Amino acid sequence: MHDLGFFRANFEKVAQRLAARGAITGLEQFRELDQRRRAVITEAEELKARRNAESAEIATLRKAGADTTERQQQVREIGNRIASLDEQIKTLDDQFRELLAGIPNLPHESVPAGGGPEDNVEVRRCGEPRKFDFEPKAHWDIGPELGILDLERAAKITGARFAVYWGAGARLERALINFMLDVHTREHGYTEVLPPFMVNSASLFGTGNLPKFADDLFKCEKHDLWLIPTAEVPVTNLYRDETLEAERLPVSLCAYTPCFRSEAGSYGRDVRGIIRQHQFQKVELVKFTRPEDSYDQLEKLTADAEDILRRLGLPFRTVVLCTGDMGFSSAKTYDIEVWLPGQNGYKEISSCSNFEAFQARRAGIRFKGAKGKSEFVHTLNGSALAVGRTWVAIVENYQQKDGSVLIPEALRPYLGAERITRPS
């Protein structure tokens, strides 16, 4: 949500920055609505001043014994008009809030201009893709051959875009979750949280998922409950409508949750395997910071996510998203993309974003500084990492000629094995 005062005072600048990300819908409507609202407020204030003056004069006349019946009727008519204008203002304010709720965040000045993914800018790369002495397979072939991934039975019991993991495949998923949580809590300074996997509408509004992206979510019929699309939603809303003490900041939290997405609008994309699922697991990092610290914290959060890939020995690159490829609530986003030999390309495994005060304003999350002044915090989050895609990256990058999959050294204590082999 935008600050209304800033939006009004800097309308042309705001319009330019929104146009850079291809978001122009609603701006002219905003200007028209703002002009109407100001006109109604001006008329209401003038009438209230007139009513007060008339009431004072009537009181004087009545003391003098004059007949004020006609003037009192005029004051009542003014009052009726004021009541009507106040109702109009309330209606316009509701329309304002609805309109502002649908306008995306402004991109930070450091975000490169562009229209889509082709204009994203690579900022660093780590590791080189492995050179195989055989034709590498994709995970949708390796998994079934090793008996660790079953998409057919998942489709039978639930539907398309779900997966069943068997044996070492299930243990690998669990090992990755524990490994990520341990690194982030023991070494990166995050506090682990296990939140609910369902949230109410107010929580989804706070993070910017509602009302604009309802089609991307799964709703529980007859209840104001939604399955979470990411742990970002419940964890960010832990402090909804609260004021934090400045000395507590930054607050750094991490959480494992399953995530549920309808994948509306993604028809035909990543239809094979488990790259794009309706249900998947993720470890999420969330930060609440002072405004002046948030971009330094974005760099730290991104580095924490990258560290998981470094420890697992997986090649990756980090790109900064251009204005036309950013998420609705984000002011700046880094995507981390892992190399997948089965697809012969890099695939997103984490998005790390700074939302500045956009989510905090929607959710009412503030902090109180040393002088007692209340301000909105800046919120950040990032996947660290998407567990299923990390599973895919390990299976494809560590596949062997004999069909087995080596386990990265950092993960072996968690899995209790050095290799996944074909069932005998």
Please describe what this structure looks like:
This protein is an alpha+beta fold and 424 residues long. The protein is built from 13 helices and 18 strands. It has helices at residues 4-9, 11-20, 27-63, 69-101, 139-146, 151-157, 167-186, 201-207, 232-236, 294-312, 358-363, 387-397, 412-415; strands at residues 121-126, 149-150, 164-165, 191-193, 198-199, 218-220, 225-227, 243-245, 251-260, 279-289, 316-320, 332-340, 345-354, 366-368, 374-376, 378-386, 405-406, 419-420. Helix 3 packs antiparallel against helix 4. The longest helix has 37 residues, at 27-63. The termini are far apart. The relative contact order is 0.14. The mean pLDDT is 93.
Any descriptors?
alpha+beta, Helix Hairpins, 424 residues, eight-stranded mixed beta sheet
Report a brief summary of the structure.
The protein is of the alpha+beta class and 424 residues long. It folds into 2 domains: 24-101, Serine-tRNA synthetase, tRNA binding domain (Helix Hairpins), CATH 1.10.287; 117-420, Bira Bifunctional Protein, Domain 2 (BirA Bifunctional Protein, domain 2).
